[in-house]
Specification:
Helix 5 runs parallel beside helix 6. The chain is globular and about 60 Å long. Helices cover 36% and strands 25% of the residues. The chain has one domain: Rossmann fold (3-Layer(aba) Sandwich). The chain is α/β, with parallel strands linked by helices. Bound molecules: S-adenosylmethionine. The site of S-adenosylmethionine (SAM) has 22 residues, from helix 3.
Amino acid sequence: MTRRGQTDARYRQAKQDGFAARSVYKLAEMDKRYQLLRPGQRVLDLGAHPGSWLQYACEKVGPSGLAVGVDIQPLAVSLPSWGRFLQADLLGVEAEDLRAFAPAYDVVLSDVAPRTTGVMHADMARSLELTARAVDLALMLLKPGGSLVAKVYFGPEVEDLIHRVKAAFTLGKAHKPEASRSQSKEIYILGRGFKARPAPASS
Ligand SMILES: C[S@@+](CC[C@H](N)C(=O)[O-])C[C@H]1O[C@@H](n2cnc3c(N)ncnc32)[C@H](O)[C@@H]1O
């Protein structure tokens, strides 16, 4: 099958499976490989519209868990009672706003992506800014041992972000899912085993 044919087939499959977007298969693939999501977890999903990752996270964590999505656009799907959504600009959201849903999270997902302009260096710079914010929030909100998955358009400064993740987690790496189009510049930065934040120095 051609690449275009595979993309169309994934789109039809997502509709059939009741998911809002075919990007769900990228998360499903990473989840299968790295065993990220489990019943009872608290999950934060940054850049959640139209909602397929959030739907998948709700399914995986189940009624004893919690899945919270954030996006500048409204969600296009309805969620079960253990799913929540905050419509907000990621660059303006504070960790405190997200602690209102749960004091800390087991997993932070970020599929956030800017509206592309076709000007490659501008798109990469905006993607890096958004993903760096997602990583900052993850480092403030994850529980020790927690996991991070964050999409970014690969570019020269992405290495620095990967190094930050490698330093903060016992396993940090870049991953390109099979379900991601080969011509796409996107990669996913993965962190597993978040190291505990050092306690603030007492004065
Ligand atoms: C590729 S889509 C996410 C798809 C989603 N994971 C799914 O499976 O349905 C990227 C999202 O990032 C969001 N986004 C872009 N800039 C944002 C910002 N500044 N704040 C919040 N969300 C933003 C877009 O609105 C878009 O919905």
